[in-house]
Please model this.
Amino acid sequence: EGALAVKTMWPLLWNAIYSLVAFFVTLKAIPSFMNIFMQAGFAGVDMGKKDRPKVAEAMGVISGCVFMITIFLFIPVPFAWHLARLGYNEDHSLTKEQIDFPHHEFVEFITAVLSVCCMLFLGFADDALNLRWRDKLFLPTIATIPLLMVYYVNSNSTTVIVPKQLRHLLGFSVNLGGLYYVFMGALTVFCTNAINILAGINGLEAGQSLIIAISVALFNLIELTGAYRESCVFSLYFLLPYIGTTAGLLRYNWFPSRVFVGDTFCYFSGVIFAVVAILGHFSKTLLLFFIPQIINFLYSIPQLFKFLPCPRHRLPRYDPDTDKLNMSTTKLKLNQLHPLGRLMFQFLRVLRLVHVVPSGDGEMLECNNLTLINLFLMILGPTHEKRLTCALLIFQVFSSLLAFFIRYQLAKLVYDV
Ligand code: UD1
Ligand code: MG
Model:
């Protein structure tokens, strides 16, 4: 037991040191690449400022590359003991069994890196080419196939424990089989896109991702003493360097932003969460840490699926007179909506979840774009950009606390934990 603890703690400690170095490297690297990116056309207009300055875009690719380099340099560390034994075995005195190289763990590691790499590439392609929606949903699904294959070969556990209250109907556990793989694939698509659509104000994308990553890492640290220690260690190997590089990125993305993170960063972040959760066997728990993103997604559905008009940008509108952000709006005509769209619209209106004003004198209406950011503005009133980001990030922290409460307290009501 003690030997095992030492065997896992040393690599973890090294990983933490690597991550700290990665943080400083990111801090140094980003400013030195800012102009190069701007010259190459990777520039975005900061729409929340009076003079609308141009800012380097897609800088998530820098933090992503620092992350990849850190992980690559780290790969030998957890296997150092086995590598050393291989090295001393030139006379072939040890058999394969005695060396006992953990091929399954190694394959998990390499596959995880492969998926992250793919999404980093896809995200950068999106920033450069502005991909269509179709591709953004289709490509992450393909990128998970190697991951799901490794899951299939290494564990293939697709049974879920049934809540106590339903056991007389369904039994102790249910084997979801192929459906579980569909769930894991969908989880990856959700994670990659959910962060990207809760965006548009300085510091929000990197900030929310950092809070989710720290929360999941805390969860893994708590579970380190439990039955799934190895999965938790594996997850931390990825999360700590991610936290380091993202913290470095946030430093420049924070209000007033000197760089934008780009879709590169959102895809890269989403796939990291999906990978560690799938291979770490906590994919359902992961969703608890995405509560704000889930709310934002559900609220966005009418616009995402085109039941209501969806403008290219839904980020809040800047008011130069007050230097504050207001809700952004979209115009619609009730009788021109799809019947389902009309139903959704009336539903939101009855619940007072949408702010509607007549526009002009015809039947034209103006309603706020359906994002969590606008919902916050509806409650808070016009708000300064920095305060708005802080409010949303505080909400993210509270959601994490709620997630821990659900996972460790409420779960007792439905499971024997
Ligand atoms: C998603 C949202 C879109 C939102 C955009 C903002 C959906 C379906 N899509 O689109 O509504 O407007 O993100 O990121 O919800 N920007 C700022 N300040 C910031 C961050 C971004 O002004 O703090 C602007 C910049 O002009 C930047 C652009 O947003 O260049 C980036 O938008 P992009 O990531 O390309 O938009 P999408 O991810 O497609
Ligand atoms: Mg984006």
About this structure: The chain is about 65% helix and 5% strand.
